[in-house]
Task: inverse folding
DNA sequence: AACAAAAAGCATACCCGGTTCAGATCCGAA
DNA sequence: TTCGGATCTGAACCGGGTATGCTTTTTGTT
């Protein structure tokens, strides 16, 4: 009963098998397209049974869309004192854009981007991931403006029938929706540029500009924007 | 070759069959849940073959999610001169909220809302519809600030290498994303209230408030919002 | 070293949404 | 009445995903 970190031969093999499945799948998808490859083929090519594959990945989508969600909720929850959620997010994405891209496996990333953007099913899956992230962010924002859940103390405000249970904080949900919509649009634009052949460095530079533009829109609103004519 | 509206016995039967299928499906879903009803059952209960059902509705989802998308792009495209897209949308939703709800089949609507909000699959479908609408709105917004495609006239601004080929108009896409995110959040909140048992009139009143709050956030940004502490 | 429990993998059969295909049926016009 | 095209239909099929019951491997213990 030792509390060693225990690389455990078992868990190492699991990790390794998982990686092998994902790599094989990505290669096949890149060759022939997501919809033209069956999970049976993937399982066979990875030397594993179909049921085993599904024990590693809950669905075919997840073979590709495994780590697409970045965790905005955590960034909001873990921000410093006195800094607004929006400022924390802006700082985070600024830093992310400025980070060195040397350590990334750019080739694999681009392959993933190409595979995803070529498949309606996967694009739908991405939208789904975005929606999930939006809900998490909404919860984090609600918690941010309500430090310790006053939600379970309705007696103190029971005498306020004019504001009947402001549901789960509409303002927080709208903010979350606008923020995730903005960030995901930035991501999509960035990946679209990459998929279209723009070199990474240039796409990164463009992204840096876009981050500022997008967060300015979030902070200051659209009232300075011209419609037309 | 008459251009009469042509009630045509045939087309009438088609319409009628379509309605019957949708009604039967909704009833079964309401009774036992979306996932617990198979399309075979629906087809049998509606007195029709499975393949016929799929000739009317392209997927099981569509039996419920048929007219969920309202057409923001059309509202933007058809707005009066001198009015911004955002103002047009705000006016539209104000009017929609203020409209009399007498003519609606409230009972059927509520059933639909309950069925949808009880099924993850259908909720995902709703997200998908939102995503589609967002893309349409993005195109409409881009067209709005670029009345007749100036895309093929870069000569006038050719001396501005600092802004290289602003891709497919990022600002329009961010605006579209923020606007659809806002409106869909309003819809979700409204339906959540209804599903939770709030009477229609009261939910309508709350929605009217929410519309103003949400569009204010869109117009003026989040910079006046407090984070916490 | 031997062993039993737990964990992982496997083959198979099954369910369900969705499609394909070759007819059967029905409507509407000539 | 008859013909052509649209519509409907049963039945087989495909692919993603699950349930079941069994073998193999890892691991901690005696």
Result:
């Amino acid at each position: 009963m030792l509390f060693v970190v225990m690389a455990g031969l078992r868990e190492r093999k699991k990790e390794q098998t998982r990686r092998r499945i994902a790599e094989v799948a990505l290669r096949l998808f890149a060759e022939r397209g997501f919809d033209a490859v069956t999970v049976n083929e993937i399982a066979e090519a990875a030397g594993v049974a179909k049921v085993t594959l599904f024990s590693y990945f809950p669905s075919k989508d997840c073979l590709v869309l495994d780590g697409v969600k970045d965790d905005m909720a955590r960034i909001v929850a873990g921000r410093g004192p006195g800094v607004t959620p929006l400022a924390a997010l802006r700082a985070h994405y600024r830093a992310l854009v400025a980070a060195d891209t040397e350590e990334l496996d750019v080739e694999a990333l681009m392959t993933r981007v190409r595979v995803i953007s070529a498949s309606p099913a996967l694009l739908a899956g991405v939208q789904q991931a975005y929606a999930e992230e939006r809900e998490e962010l909404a919860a984090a924002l609600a918690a941010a403006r309500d430090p310790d859940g006053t939600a379970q103390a309705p007696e103190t405000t029971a005498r306020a029938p004019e504001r009947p249970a402001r549901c789960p904080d509409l303002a927080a949900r709208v903010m979350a929706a606008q923020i995730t919509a903005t960030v995901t649009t930035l991501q999509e634009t960035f990946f679209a540029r990459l998929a279209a052949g723009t070199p990474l460095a240039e796409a990164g530079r463009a992204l840096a500009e876009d981050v500022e533009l997008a967060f300015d829109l979030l902070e200051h609103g659209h009232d300075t924007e011209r419609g037309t004519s």
